[in-house]
Specification:
heterodimer, A: 174 residues, alpha/beta, fumarase, 7 strands, globular, B: alpha/beta, 60s Ribosomal Protein L30, Chain: A, 2 domains, four-stranded mixed beta sheet, 8 helices, 40% helix
């Protein structure tokens, strides 16, 4: 188990290998389809992209006693064409589910970033590791708004690493 | 003639959509547990642990299993000796609206293929109706997620393609979908009928009990063979590799035209949410 606390450094990225279990504690940000489209045009986002962690998610509405509703990852491939520019601006970790394009994977290696997956459909489990949630941008997008999340022991697996391995090609199982 | 008030249907839909989104079916939980005990891949096993822990947390906290709380699909069997007081379609949609609000479920329906404006209350439900010869109403209610639905396929094979053609299409579909439909999956396979009938057969196959099998010996064998062959593909939970790709294959069939072999493959994620209620 590798424990990470954002902001993430270049050195930390190099130490991640496909199949590693990663536990994140600290501040991460949500962004999915529409938020990506807007972020690309944004000159001054309300959070520092350098070393940041982006989680692809659109939660359910939270109950009164919850920081956030069910929060499982959404399919990452829809963000493939937009993610490279955000990595160029400093994003280091992306958390989602499923395989992505070869063009994304090459850009990720070039920018020394890393793609993690969280267990798809584990919305209740992942929600229980989110302690605080605040919408910081694009409130009009509802579940697609950008939220700042404070997470504790948020569980992920390394899916693509900068050493060229890919979990979806069976690289986690020897 | 038995009188049933439409408000009874609203009540059933409202409570059922919340229940199925919060509580994973016990037999499904056990099937995932058994798969986990047999899984050799460490990462795969760890993901199956997450899925099981997720079900326990959702159950305890009365919270949705997944953030995609689905589109509501209702298969209705209405006895011809029943009279419904009120509008049936409105009653179902009212139940969906109330349940998704009360249960803090995500509203995932948009109104138009291109404008894509959210309808705001997860309506309309997708409703299929059959008339039967009794005085009851049977409702099979499902909340179907988008990720697995997007990996589903309808294809018109030729009679000469036969059972081998059907198997190859299923294996190709599951392999190409990889981790996207959130495996371990359940496969609903509709064979025969015509273009639209095959899709309905596949969807209804997903609503069968997990431990049953098709009464036809050839189709029962097909269910068992496909389960083994899919799990030999090595896709694994969430596509990370491993032996647990599929939990069950359900085949439903219907008579068809001499020229056709319609095949529909409806894929269901591990969070299979459905329930049958009889009024």
């Amino acid at each position: 188990m590798i424990k990470l606390t954002p902001p993430i450094t270049d050195e930390e990225i190099k130490q991640l290998h496909v199949g590693d279990k990663v536990s994140i504690t600290g501040t991460i940000y949500t962004a999915r389809d529409q938020a990506h489209i807007r972020l690309l045009k944004e000159k001054n986002p309300k959070f520092d992209l350098k070393g940041s962690v982006i989680f692809y998610v659109g939660p359910t509405p939270n109950k009164p006693n919850q920081a956030v509703g069910a929060s499982g990852p959404t399919s990452s491939y829809r963000m493939d064409t937009m993610a490279p520019e955000l990595m160029a601006r400093g994003v280091k970790l992306m958390i989602g589910k499923g395989d992505r394009s070869e063009a994304f994977r090459e850009a990720m290696i070039e920018h020394n970033a890393c793609y993690l997956i969280a267990t798809g459909g584990a919305g209740a489990l992942l929600s229980s590791r989110i302690k605080k949630s605040k919408v910081i941008m694009y409130e009009d997008l509802g579940p697609e708004a950008i939220r700042e999340l404070t997470v504790e022991d948020f569980p992920c697996f390394v899916a693509y690493d900068v050493h060229g391995k890919n979990i979806f090609k069976g690289d986690a199982n020897g | 003639m038995r009188e049933i008030d439409a408000s009874q249907i609203t009540d059933v839909i409202r409570e059922t959509v919340i229940e199925i989104n919060y509580h994973l079916d016990q037999s499904l939980f056990q099937l995932i547990q058994q798969a986990k005990d047999k899984e050799h891949s460490e990462v795969a096993s760890s993901i199956l642990d997450d899925i099981l822990e997720n079900a326990k947390i959702a159950d305890t906290n009365q919270a949705p299993l997944c953030q995609d709380t689905g589109v509501v699909v209702v298969f209705l069997e209405i006895g011809q000796d029943v009279h419904i007081n009120g509008n049936l379609t409105d009653a179902i949609n009212q139940g969906v609206k109330d349940g998704y609000e009360k249960g803090y479920l995500r509203k995932s329906m948009v109104n138009h293929p291109f404008n894509r404006q959210n309808t705001g209350d997860n309506t309309p439900a997708i409703i299929h109706t059959k008339l039967v010869s009794d005085d009851k109403i049977k409702l099979k209610i499902a909340a179907k997620g988008g990720g697995s639905e997007n990996m589903s396929v309808v294809k018109m094979l030729t009679p000469a393609d036969g059972i081998e053609g059907v198997k190859q299409l299923v294996l190709d579909t599951v392999f190409n979908a990889g981790g996207k439909p959130c495996p371990p999956i359940i496969v609903g396979l509709g064979l025969g009928g015509n273009f639209e009938k095959s899709a309905l057969l596949a969807k209804e196959a997903l609503l069968r009990e997990l431990d049953d099998s098709n009464p036809d010996p050839t189709l029962k064998q097909l269910e068992q063979d496909l389960l083994k062959e899919i799990n030999a593909l090595g896709v694994g939970p969430m596509g990370v590799g491993g032996e647990t790709t599929c939990l069950a294959v359900k085949v439903n069939a219907h008579a068809m035209h001499i020229a056709s072999l319609p095949v529909a493959i409806n894929i269901q994620c591990h969070s299979s949410r459905h329930k049958e209620v009889i009024i």
